[in-house]
Amino acid sequence: MHKKTLEDIGEKELINRLGKFMPKNQISDDCALIKTKNENLLVNTDCLVENVHFNDINICPMDLGWKAVVSNISDLLSSGSKKTIGITISLVLPPRTEWIWVEELYKGINKALKEYGGMILGGDCSKGDDKVISITAFGIQGELELRRNACKPGEIILTTGIHGLSKLGFLMQNKINFDNQFSLNERLIIKSIEHFCRPRVYPNFLNNLLKTRSNKKIKRIGCTDSSDGLFQALQDLAMASSCKAIIDYEKIPKDKDWPNGDKWDEYYFFGGEDYELVFSLPKKWAKNLSKLDKNINEIGFFTDGKPSIEFNDNKKNKILNNTTFKHF
Amino acid sequence: MHKKTLEDIGEKELINRLGKFMPKNQISDDCALIKTKNENLLVNTDCLVENVHFNDINICPMDLGWKAVVSNISDLLSSGSKKTIGITISLVLPPRTEWIWVEELYKGINKALKEYGGMILGGDCSKGDDKVISITAFGIQGELELRRNACKPGEIILTTGIHGLSKLGFLMQNKINFDNQFSLNERLIIKSIEHFCRPRVYPNFLNNLLKTRSNKKIKRIGCTDSSDGLFQALQDLAMASSCKAIIDYEKIPKDKDWPNGDKWDEYYFFGGEDYELVFSLPKKWAKNLSKLDKNINEIGFFTDGKPSIEFNDNKKNKILNNTTFKHF
């Protein structure tokens, strides 16, 4: 009898099965929580594998170091971390790796830590055939707990920025040809590559949330980041919070030169690695926040119903018949 | 010009160079320290790579899971962790990996956590060509700070148990032939394989240390574990504490059936993966502790001098002209 492999069972089922080995409260969120006497710590682990998440052609080691840190900090922020303490780094490197590659990687790591706070706490290093960079990041849980399962029907869905750019940058860096390549705006191309190689996060987001909170009793907010794409983020929120997301396609913030068409919608919703926050707030709070921070956009709302995503314009729902990034 | 690779510069120089990217206090110890308002956390990361640290022939996935956890807990204990909070797991697995392999790995992980405390807090999973298991473990710093740099001249060097067994187990599991194989005691073979596949640690060690402390003012103890071999542990302590280790070969605890000879000395001092603690204490404390715990043995002492290791019997010093485990 053929024993089932990871390829057979697929990523979703793998996560589901691994979840059974973990305490229930730790499964559905971006970060794990460690309770200490006075403060709670947020912990996140992210793993980048050569020829799966990066290669020598599409990103230079300094940008890779930056991005590895930022993807972890994005998860901390999306759980409500008020301060990044630091990271540990587990590196697997082939012996033929040039020292300068490692040096550049660490320069990028420290650049991101200088920008967003935190320091290298320690790590481990081993030889291996392919490069692997696994980073575990630690932050301090702030006053607001941001959790995937805290969205509520009636709340407004918001996002901190534009999606799809990182995917376009990835395609450009991998020199993948596509039909209307030559009609693409140069500014958009440069911006997209910047988003792919040097993504940014918004440490000020938490302060702005606190500043605009009208009801001090609210301590939990539904939130995740769009590292696996906007669609996946919305789905994760809907599933964890047991409610239905209704998205207004017209309200979705796009780059002014972003082309129209099915393919471009696919990049936008399924591209991933944009590290924008996707979250929901009561109406008044949402209005105050998007007034204070012009990068934040309302894109829809949650309602009662089967955990799912729908566009209010039914014609747009075909976009959703798509597959997300497959890990296996 | 040939750019220097990691193979060219070697492991020691690599660690030295990476150290420059880290805050100074975090370089020389088994764990990193995270200060929170009331408690300090200890954090350790260890990375196991297929065909470097393990393969499908020499260890089954359940034992591998156990061992991956234990090697991390050993580092926490050797820094004075009074309680293991939990671990995060970063997994790289080829898509052809059978689910049952992953399930067995997690069973071994949870068996070790059940035995020694702690839970799975979270993690990440990605595909890749070779299996990589990177675990980050968290513990709470106890009253006694165990640190590599806290040994003092005049202190007695002790170890919690017998070395070399794991190396012998490794050779047996890899079916490596050696001359006097047939003269080996069967009990010793079984015990060695057990040590290699299912290493154990001593969570009671810290309590026994506290129980036998005669001077309550002493808060820091020189300590590390012998995961990279007894010699490496002694060298790490000597280097970090700037003192000289004098070892009494006759006092070193060996299995009663451990053969004599240069090769067996090499396995004993350089074998690694025994996860015994190697530490130093003031004379009186050392005496009290080895009286209370019969597995603990005095094996020498630290003295003023250039950081180094010497046997008091000069004839034995040839053992030390050897190389340790090379990571690159």
TrEMBL record, chains A, B:
It is an enzyme of class 2 (transferase). The keyword Magnesium applies. Pfam families: AIRS, AIRS_C. ATP binds at residues 106, 123-124, 148, 227. The keyword Kinase applies. SUPFAM superfamilies: PurM C-terminal domain-like (SSF56042), PurM N-terminal domain-like (SSF55326). Keywords: ATP-binding, Kinase, Magnesium, Metal-binding, Nucleotide-binding, Thiamine biosynthesis, Transferase. Mg(2+) 3 binds at residues 30, 75, 225. It comes from the Bacteria. Its EC number is 2.7.4.16. Pathway: Cofactor biosynthesis; thiamine diphosphate biosynthesis; thiamine diphosphate from thiamine phosphate: step 1/1. Mg(2+) 4 binds at residues 30, 75. Mg(2+) 5 binds at residue 228. Substrate binds at residues 53, 273, 325. Residues 29-140 form the PurM-like N-terminal domain. Mg(2+) 1 binds at residues 45-46, 124. Residues 152-306 form the PurM-like C-terminal domain. GO terms for molecular function: ATP binding; magnesium ion binding; thiamine-phosphate kinase activity. Reaction mechanism of ThiL seems to utilize a direct, inline transfer of the gamma-phosphate of ATP to TMP rather than a phosphorylated enzyme intermediate. Catalyzes the ATP-dependent phosphorylation of thiamine-monophosphate (TMP) to form thiamine-pyrophosphate (TPP), the active form of vitamin B1. HAMAP family: TMP_kinase. This is Thiamine-monophosphate kinase. It comes from Prochlorococcus marinus (strain MIT 9301).
